[in-house]
Amino acid sequence: MTNADENRPEALPLEASFDALGRILDLLSQADPFGQYPLAQITRVVRDQLRFGANVAVKNQQDVLIGYAGWIHTSKAAGQLWVEDKGSLKVLAPGTHDAVALTIVLSREAAATTALIRAARNLNPGARVYFRRGYDNVLRTPKKISVLNFEPPD
113, 16, 112: which is closest to 59 by C-alpha? Predict the structure, then answer.
């Protein structure tokens, strides 16, 4: 392992707890558009992501959250409609889904962003992942609206 590898942030799933919920909500409240969402709405989404293990986070050396990514389990049909603004996501129980929708990504550092996306992909092998991209509260049309996670090699 090189020194660069030792300094690379690691993204790990957070356990469902009040502490994790509070840390995530605190991070999200400091950035738009998440800070503008109604509290009940954003809390419900994050709580479900924690409950279903559909999240990863990066902490700095002071144990402060500097990045979070959360997704929901859904269907390919619902994901496609969602990215086209033609329908809402339908939340499915883990194991009954054929796709995931990456609904929250917030990072304070570029290296944390890379770690979040890599970890989220590793936790969802073989799944079609739908996402929408926005920066500074502006939704931008991505070049791709979904990616297919390949199964890891044996």
Answer: 112
